[in-house]
Write a structure and sequence with these properties.
The protein is mainly alpha-helical and about 260 residues long. The protein contains 12 helices and no strands. Helices cover about 80% and strands about 0% of the residues. The protein is globular and about 75 Å long. The protein starts with a helix and ends in a 5-residue tail after the last helix. The model has no long low-confidence stretch (mean pLDDT about 85).
Length: about 260
């Protein structure tokens, strides 16, 4: 027993060293912009860059639209499959897993082929249309995570009983969805939303090929032209990801303590 515990702690220590040593090295290098001393000049340079603010704000806006429209797509779908079409569950799960096995570059080239300026639905013919296509691309990428989070949350509630009780009280479908189902799966929705946010903020392929001023292409541009700022941006991007993961854990913990809403 003692030997197994020692081996377990050794494995944990090796994992922590493997993970944190490169991160510490990156952070330490980001502080060396001023010769001979540590400083936050690299971070100051990043935050004072107008392009950083523009690309970060653009990606934040795209993440917000992706979360809203992804939520409106996934929650009713998961609800309908669980309530009315359980036989379609394997098919829906297979479809939602497709973005994990199809490379993003293949998806975006398909979008460019189908929705170019000369097609019947010319998304790329205007800036707003291209932004809409980018949001749809992000929804596709986040679909596996959003659907799994919502479906897991929906397993914890009695969907059929909630629906029947609401129908007995005279509630229509929109009322059932937004007053009964959404509040009870909000933990899953928020978990999927935080994962989606992390994906959108770091995504490069789709934003670059659609030529949109997103945060991912900006990271690549700075990395190719500057020395210390890329390390600072790497730490910032890492902090965004870990903040999202921490919020997921916080939401999951509170959802376990909260009772289901009737």
């Amino acid at each position: 027993m003692k030997t197994s515990k020692i081996l377990a702690w050794i494995a944990i220590a090796i994992g922590l060293i493997y993970f944190f040593v490169p991160l510490i090295g990156t952070f330490e290098f980001s502080l060396r912009m001023r010769r001979g001393e540590y400083s936050l000049d690299a971070y100051q340079s990043v935050f004072s860059d107008m392009q950083f603010r523009e690309t970060f704000g653009f990606s934040m806006l795209m993440a917000l639209f992706t979360i809203i429209f992804g939520m409106l797509l996934v929650v009713p779908t998961a609800y309908w499959v669980r309530l009315r079409l359980p036989q379609m569950r394997p098919v829906v799960e297979f479809i939602t897993l497709m973005p994990l096995v199809i490379p993003a570059i293949v998806i975006v080239f398909g979008y460019l082929r189908l929705y170019n300026s000369s097609s019947w639905l010319p998304f790329t013919g205007s800036t707003q249309g291209t932004n809409a296509l980018l949001v749809l691309s992000y929804i596709t990428l986040s679909l596996p995570y959003m659907y799994r989070s919502v479906d897991t949350a929906m397993r914890a509630i009695d969907v059929r009983t909630l629906t029947e009780a609401a129908e007995i009280l005279g509630a229509k479908w929109p009322t059932i969805m937004f007053r009964c189902i959404f509040p009870n799966v909000m933990s899953g929705v928020l978990s999927g939303a935080f994962i989606t946010f992390a994906i959108v903020m770091g995504e490069f392929t789709m934003a670059a090929l659609l030529n949109r001023p997103a945060f991912g292409p900006y990271l690549q541009l700075v990395g190719a032209n500057k020395a210390y700022e890329p390390s600072a941006l790497a730490i910032i991007a890492f902090a965004i990801t870990w903040l999202s993961m921490g919020l997921i854990q916080l939401v999951s913990r509170f959802s376990k303590l909260a009772p289901s809403r009737p």
